[in-house]
Design brief:
The chain is α/β, with parallel strands linked by helices and 245 residues long. The protein has a domain at 5-119 and 174-200 and 220-244: Spore Coat Polysaccharide Biosynthesis Protein SpsA, Chain A. The protein has 8 helices and 11 strands. The protein has helices spanning 31-39, 55-63, 78-86, 106-118, 182-187, 195-200, 204-209, 231-244, and strands at residues 5-11, 25-26, 29-30, 47-52, 68-70, 93-96, 124-130, 143-146, 152-156, 172-181, 214-218. Strands 1, 4, 5, 6, 7, 8, 9, 10 and 11 form a 9-stranded mixed sheet that branches. A two-stranded antiparallel ribbon has the order 2-3. The longest helix is centred in the C-terminal third of the chain and has 14 residues, at 231-244. It is globular and about 50 Å long.
């Protein structure tokens, strides 16, 4: 392929709903270890790196043999943390794999990489999947609509598109995984925050409002991010089902 591709897992200790969640135990391992090991299964990656602002997470990653770097505690978003982590790394494409996504699959990451390798005008990529009826009205479930080429038109916490014609286009659930060209990732923190980004509290809207393309790749798989302590049991059940399959 000729491209150097690195996946970075931003993992911070402070969380309003679930403090310390990267270290939450799942079947005897900290959650960040599950994310790290499953990310490494993607054969297109040259390196997997955890970026954290907390010594406890740093030590935990070192203890299981992972690659980790300390970053500033002052970052406003996970993308800002990524930009710091890659500043001195020789890399072409950078993936953002959230530290609370222990169900990540290697084929999902391959999907993120593909458009960035094949199409020069795509600055950024992300994932979507089919939405479930109960998610449409849930503001924690971000929806995305795309143009005919699969580029994002808009992301929202509201139910989009409005189902005026029931036979119209499907609603898509946005999955919070991202791929970036290195140059664009380094540029992102310098882009001024935008009105819609603030209104929806979705940093990817900053990219669209500044006129850049985000390619949305459909995934057959839906992951379940860990937002609250109660989510651990749901993730554990899915991991056990995978082991038994």
């Amino acid at each position: 392929m000729g491209k150097k591709i690195v996946a970075i897992i931003p993992a911070r200790y402070g969380s309003t709903r679930f403090p310390g969640k990267p270290l939450a135990p799942i079947m005897g391992k900290p959650m960040v270890e599950w994310v790290y090991n499953r990310t490494r299964q993607c054969e297109l990656l040259s390196r997997v790196l955890v970026a954290t602002d907390d010594e406890r997470i740093f030590r935990a990653v070192r203890n299981f043999g992972g690659d980790v770097v300390m970053t500033s505690s002052q970052h406003f978003t996970g993308t800002d943390r990524l930009a710091e982590a890659v500043r001195d790394i020789e890399v072409d494409i950078v993936l953002n794999v959230q530290g609370d996504e222990p169900l990540v699959r290697p084929d999902m990451l391959t999907g993120l990489i593909k458009p960035l390798v094949e199409e020069n005008d795509i600055a950024m990529s992300t994932l979507s999947t089919t939405i479930r009826p109960g998610d449409l009205e849930d503001p924690d479930c971000v929806k995305v609509v795309t143009d005919l080429e699969g580029n994002a038109l808009y992301f929202s916490r509201a139910p989009i598109p409005y189902p005026w014609e029931r036979s119209g286009g499907r609603s898509l659930l946005h999955l919070g995984f991202y791929g970036f060209r290195r140059d664009f990732l380094l540029q992102f923190p310098r882009l001024p925050r935008t009105p819609l980004e603030g209104r929806e509290s979705l940093e990817q809207l900053r990219v669209l409002e500044h006129g850049y393309k985000i390619r949305v790749v459909y995934s057959q798989h839906r992951t379940f991010g860990v937002d609250r302590p109660a989510d651990i049991s749901l993730v554990t059940d899915h991991l056990r089902e995978e082991e038994e399959a």
